[in-house]
Amino acid sequence: MDKRDKKRSEVLKQKLTKLQQLLAAAKQQADEPDEVRNLEKQVAETRAELDKLK
């Protein structure tokens, strides 16, 4: 893994953490069911990209 991939990996990990926090908050509030689905989709996409880098 080169320097660029390491930096991208760090950024993705930070994004994943933030998305998971937003998802937890959205599940508790449950005002917009579409928001939960969108956040789950973003989490899955971020995890897939992170796995692809490894």
Radius of gyration: 13 Å
What is the structural class? mainly alpha
Coarse morphology = elongated
Along the chain, the helix and strand elements come as HH
Number of domains: 1
Q: What is the β-strand count?
A: 0
The parts where pLDDT drops under 50 for at least 5 residues are: none
Largest beta sheet, briefly? none
Distance between the termini: 8 Å
Please report which band the strand proportion falls in: under 5%, 5-15%, 15-25%, 25-35%, 35-45% or over 45%.
under 5%
Q: Could you report the average pLDDT, rounded to the nearest whole number?
A: 93
Count, helices? 2
**Level of helix content?**
over 70%
Q: What is the strand and helix layout of this fold?
A:
Layout (H helix, E strand, L loop, with lengths): L2 H27 L3 H21 L1
Helix pairs in contact: 1-2
3D architecture notes:
This protein is mostly helical. It has one domain. It is 89% helix and 0% strand. The chain has 2 helices and no strands. Helix 1 packs antiparallel against helix 2. It is elongated. The model has no long low-confidence stretch (mean pLDDT 93).
Compose a concise summary of this entry.
This protein has two helices and no strands.
Brief descriptors of the model:
single chain, elongated, mainly alpha, 54 residues
